[in-house]
Amino acid sequence: MSNKGRTTPRVVCCAIPIARSAGKVLVITSRKRPNNWVLPKGGWEPSDGVLEAAASREALEEAGVRGTITRFVTTIPSASSTYHFYELDVQGLDAEWLESKERRREWVDYAEASKRLAWKAELVQGLSLSSLAPKR
C-alpha cells in the first residue's frame, strides 16, 4: 500500500450504519470496485472538526444515510491509513443522495455483512467489534 505521497497515514472515518430494531447493517458498493461491498468511509477533512462528523458526512454522501453517531467502535492502523469506526443509528434514508448514481446500498444481517466485507480486512475487523457482532 502506498501513502500516495503523504508522510503520515490518511485518517479515514468509517460509519457502521445500523437499523437496531431489525439487527441489520447497511453496506454499499465500492466506486472503484463496483462488485465489492464496503461501509461508508472517507477521509477526515479539517472542516469536519471531529472524527465523528466525518463518519456521519461520509454516510450521507455515500449512502444517503441520516442518523446519529452513537458509539466509537475502534481505531485500526494500516500502512497507508488509520481507520476510525463509529456506529451510526439510522433514522432515515434519502431516496436520492450525492453518490446514488454510483453506488448500490443494501440492508444485510451481520453474517452477510461479514462475508461481503471480507475482501477488506480493516472493514470486517471494525464490524466484528461493533455491537451487532455475536457475543463471544
Automatic annotation (TrEMBL):
Co-factor(s): Mg(2+)
Domain Nudix hydrolase: 9-131
PROSITE patterns on file: NUDIX
GO biological process terms on file: adenosine 5'-(hexahydrogen pentaphosphate) catabolic process; diadenosine hexaphosphate catabolic process; diadenosine pentaphosphate catabolic process; diphosphoinositol polyphosphate metabolic process
GO molecular function: bis(5'-adenosyl)-hexaphosphatase activity; bis(5'-adenosyl)-pentaphosphatase activity; diphosphoinositol-polyphosphate diphosphatase activity; endopolyphosphatase activity; metal ion binding
CDD domains: NUDIX_DIPP2_like_Nudt4
Keywords: Hydrolase, Magnesium, Metal-binding
GO cellular component: cytoplasm; nucleus
SUPFAM superfamilies cross-referenced by the UniProt entry: Nudix
This protein's name: Nudix hydrolase domain-containing protein
InterPro entries for this protein: DDP-like_NUDIX (IPR047198), NUDIX_hydrolase-like_dom_sf (IPR015797), NUDIX_hydrolase_dom (IPR000086)
Tree of life domain: Eukaryota
